[in-house]
Sequence to fold (406 residues):
Amino acid sequence: MVEEIVNTRERINRIRGEVLDSIDLSRDISDEELQRLIHEQIQKEAKSEYIPLSERNRIGKGVFNSLRKLDFIQDLLENEEITEIMINGPDCIFTEQSGNVTKQDLKFESREKLEDMIQQIVSSCNRTVNEKDPIADARLADGCRVNIVLSPPAMEGPVVTIRRFPKKEITMADLIRWGTITKEAADFLQAAVKAGSNIFVSGGTSSGKTTMLNVLSGFIPRALRVICIEDSAELRIKHIPNLIRLETRNSTAEGCEDITIRDLIRCSLRMRPDRLIIGEVRGAEAMDMLQAFNTGHEGSMSTGHANTAEDMLLRLEAMVLMGTKLPIGAIRRQISTGIDLIVHLSRQRNGQRRVEEIIEILGISGEEIKKNVLFAIRTDANGESILNKVNEPKKAKHSEGYGKAE
Fold:
């Protein structure tokens, strides 16, 4: 198997070189013309050596992908079963599939080839990455999220991590079917979004935060004006006609300055939003998010990294302190009035994502944030851990319409 892959790669590289030699570099050529040139070169190769039709198709696709797309990585991107592609240098590639991580018998010809692919990725979304600025977040045309780290931080060669998102839109019905959430909890969240609750989705890495945020966004009433702010555009909100999507920008060698999440949140407040969706908060922008949530933008949402819902409250406090000198009591009041619900997700050892807890924020009692656990994982009589309803909601907006979600 490995020998076949090597032989195919050698043919692809040889034919690729012949195609490049035959191209008129003084003009742009279309994909169709390029495919015709590739086919002609494969035909020439087949005259001296028998090449099965399936192998010809594989070579043709490989040559085209190496010239116009992301080389052999393109095949991995087109595999619907793969959710993550991890490139740890030119000759060490792993993929995640159904929660299992597997090393692939694939490698780049050289470090330069991998670096060429990286530049192709970042240039397509107006980003830059180099030795001076060796870390970058980017995205592919189909919405896949890409994180890139070059040397000197990446000691063994460029590291590229690609998070794939399913082409088919994931719905709440899918999450219920997969066991991520129960129908009762899903109906509650649907009613909460429609009622205008400010919702914060928390969880660890790869726990399904972005997927949950995308699903919840699907319940926002169509008539509202929504502004979506992200580091790299990932959310797929299609049902809102009055939708504005904003994306951050890194500084460039040409003198363009950073455009940060904080900048975009402040700008968005002058754009008359009904609701804000902030892809993720990681630092001082948490203060701007809370101020936006507290100034009439009911029904806004965001995500953040934490191990539990309780930890998320503590992390929000820490993040706000990065950008302000407010006393902790004032920060907690901002959190307690700005956020109505925290939905916490986790990723199990078998790769399954599930909602662990939904808590309601009720306000301040002394210096502490009052919480009401609405849903939490409990063990039933059969010893199975499932998401159970624990308490009734106490806020009026959560009680009205609960259980009446369409």
About this structure: Residues 2-22 form the longest helix (21 residues).
